[in-house]
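The authors assume throughout that readers already know how a fold can be written as discrete tokens. For illustration, here is how one protein appears when written out as sequence plus structure tokens.
>
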Amino acid sequence: MYTEDDLRQAVASGAISADAAEALRQSVRTAHPTPSVDEENFRLVNSFNDIFVTIAAVLLLVAMAGIGQAFTPRLDGPPPFSGMLIAAAAWGMAEYFTRQRRMALPSIVLLLAFVGGVFEALLGFIVMAMGDDSTNERVAVTLVALAALVTAGAAWMHWRRFMVPITIAAGTAAVAGTVVALIVAAIGPNNIEPEQALIPLVFIAGVSVFAFAMRWDMTDRERQTRRSDVAFWLHLLAAPMIAHPLFHWLGVTEGDSIGMGAAFGVLLVYLAMGLVALAVDRRALLVSALAYVLFALGSLFERFGAVELNVALTALVIGSALLTLSAFWTPIRMSVVRGLPTNLQSRLPVTALLAA
């Protein structure tokens, strides 16, 4: 199977002409009823060898974690030397499996291991430096923010070297964590209630990440470059950061059965998120909010007396709706986008129907 990256490299190397590549793309568009831009294609596994290499890499990373822990003094925190060895091993394996072999799944795992290892090492050294002194929580939170910022810098170095699309999302998550931690440190950890500060901060961070993802999306409206893959992972990061606060404010995260008003509120919010997902041609918002909608709809059926069938009815309604949306995604999206202002349409991802 040839990906868009392979096609671009073939053009760059002179193996085929740009006209031939475009003719091939047009042939694929004609052969498929759904435009490829609407499929949100991203490469994860090329062959079973990707899975084989990933398993081997994970085993090696687990070994590095165990060796590092053996050399780490006992402390209440992450072992720093484990993080260092994990990050070093992940970078070393990426030099071959990412930079030379360009294997997608191992590259994602190695990137996450590298970023996680750097953050684990920094947190471990912070705990070692502070020792038993846990009185100054503001200093501790500030140091955690600094660790997150350094982790973001490490992610940027990894991006410059290997250009793995998920790297930008990992670095953005670290930056968001830095900002939130600095605000918490400025206010004072003891003065913060999660509902009053942390939840709104997460929501604001999620909206900011979504806007950042749209900036990447708008630079590749036909989704033919790596920038679209970067946007995909950013949307995947932003979606739960937006969805969780919204449904928390509606009372869904309390764990108990919610009232009819809240249940209908959840459905309305999910409908609004669906319209946004259709407009920007990204399904991440719908997937991230799915658990909350299932819970709310189940509570709604239970209120109407369908206690024994509430799970089955909920699955039937949501499953049917999502399958219908998937089958008719392109024409439904065309209707949604054509109702938007023209200047906004010109910035959204295009499809064959929208371009016609």
The CA atoms of residues 13 and 281 lie 32 Å apart. The two ends are 28 Å apart (CA to CA).
